[in-house]
Amino acid sequence: METARLQEVTKSKLPFLVLFRLALPISLSRLLHVFGHFIVMMMVARQGDDQLAAGSLAISSYMTVLTLTSSIFYAIGILIRSQPQPSAQTGKLISNALFLATALALPGALSLIYMDKLLLLLHQDTALVALTREYFFFSALGLFPMLWLTVILQFYLGTGKAQVALWLEMLGLPLTLLIAYMLVPGHFGLPQWGLAGVSLASLMVQMILLCGVLYFLLRKNPLLRRFSLTIDWPLCTKILKLGLPIGIQFGGELAVMACATYLMGYFGTNALAALQITNQYALVVFMLNFGLSQALALTISEAQRTQYAPVSAIILAALCLFAAYIVPVIVVFAVFSRQLTCFYIGTDSFPPAFYALSTAFFLLSAGFLVVDGLRNLLTCALRGFHDSRNPGRINLLSLWGVSLPLSAVAAFGLHGGPIGLRLGFLSGFIVAVMLLSHNLLQKLKRGDYLKSFIQKEGDYA
Fold first, then answer.
1. Of 12, 234, 374, 385, which has the fewest beta carbons less than 10 angstroms from its beta carbon?
2. In Å, how far are 105, 331, 394 from 438, measured between CA atoms?
3. Which residues of the chain are under the pLDDT cut of 70?
4. Are 27 and 294 in contact (CB under 8 A)?
5. Where are the domains of the chain?
6. What separation in angstroms does the CA of 100 have from each of 69, 103, 229, 235?
7. What residues have CB less than 8 Å from 71, skipping those under 6 apart?
8. What residues have CB less than 8 Å from 160, skipping those under 6 apart?
9. What's 63-94 look like in SS3?
10. Dihedrals phi, psi of 24, to nearest 5 degrees
11. Taken in order 71, 169, 276, 331, is the CA torsion positive or negative?
């Protein structure tokens, strides 16, 4: 009897290991990608605060388009993961996903090419907008290889080979840093590209990686060589049915964040520059949450098929892993905000008001990381049940209906300025966490997952 209980306890700890092993390569690969971007943007920051402020406008706009299109293909990993084993259907799934990626990249690229016109319509600083034009042009070209790579990496993620993404980032990081070092400040006799050098370097590296990964993909996976060029419309519909709500949710979230950045632009270059600094640090931390959230969705999807562990145990394991890394981050952001700012911009000569604003943004960013991290975990837990519509609606309504209006009221109506803007923006994230928690608890109760987990915990006691 005691041996049986010990085996049950051992099994109950399995979700921690499963989540950690799956999330680690995803998070590390994204961390490497973001680390490269972080260093490159530091190069941009050394070119002046106007380049840094322009980067805040450009990157928030680009990330909206990229996320709206690329996150649709997160459905590929979930669909493959729900299959008992890879089959000929997998090759058809990938070929149709690549077709959809090309179709979606076309309007996405056009929107980037004309993005500077939108910024001018929103009354952003003309000089800053001028610095974004070439950045948007190269980003538009880079959208095609970026989406194709997303599809391929989702195939590897769905087949349990998440380490492939890590290998690609390990190859891409030194290339990105080298090319950006040549282009952004203009070393080795090359012209100084500034902010545009960021997207040009990314385009070059993405093309190199795409050629390499396509070669190995077709060489090592015979099933994928059997794909047909004929478009399977029902299969495309299936991909979009699961992936489009994900894309709309993520893209809609980034769009509302971009709008908040545009509102910040009304407070001047210093506010945009301070926001860009804190956002870059927060983005590095968010990649840990990104990997954990993706792993949670995939693990829940698989657990429903294999029933190797209660879903509630998997969710609890994810929350514990989240707490393990977010607490040290809060301490670092609260205690070392000025040091982090000086390290990023490479100088301590900015006016005191800039550092005071940056410190406030770091404290608020710590709060954002906690609330937004919980929101993403809850969203992906629901997505693991193949429910992407309800969390999508909750998130979009909370951000567009609560965050954006309240941030505008707090900043302009109540004269809270940049800090009021950030505080008001946090409100919708809190509302989303409350609604998603209720939604997930109802789903767990209906599936009787929570009851079985509580009963097992009582047995162990």
1. 234
2. 36, 29, 11
3. 1-14, 82-88, 162, 221-229, 304-309, 447-461
4. no
5. 2-460
6. 10, 5, 12, 11
7. 243, 246, 247, 249, 250, 251
8. none
9. HHHHHHHHHHHHHHHHHHHCCCCCCHHHHHHH
10. -60, -55
11. positive
Question: Tens digit of pLDDT for each residue in 90-119?
Answer: 778 888 889 999 999 999 999 999 999 999
The alpha carbons of the chain give a radius of gyration, in whole angstroms, of 22
The structure tokens 């600094």 sit at 277
Long-range contacts of 113-119 (CB under 8 A, 24+ apart): 113/137, 113/140, 115/61, 115/62, 115/65, 118/61, 119/57, 119/61, 119/262
Would the CA dihedral through 333, 334, 336, 342 be positive or negative?
positive
Q: At what angle do helices 133-158 and 195-220 cross, to 10 degrees?
A: 30
Residue 412, exposed/middle/buried by CB under 10 A (0-12, 13-18, 19+)? middle
pLDDT score recorded for residue 453? 41
User: Within a 13 Å sphere around the CA of 54, how many CA atoms are in the beta-carbon half?
Assistant: 26
Burial class from Cβ neighbours inside 10 Å (0-12, 13-18, 19+) for residue 10 reads: exposed
For 184-268, where are the alpha helices, taking DSSP H only? 195-220, 233-265
Greatest Cα-to-Cα distance within the chain, rounded to the nearest angstrom: 75
Task: Report d(CA 86, CA 88) in Å as an integer.
Answer: 7
Residue 30 neighbours by CB under 8 Å, 6+ apart: 165, 169, 287, 290, 291
Q: How many CA atoms lie within 13 A of 1 on its CB side?
A: 2
Contact 426, 381 (CB under 8 A): no
* pTM of this structure: 0.78
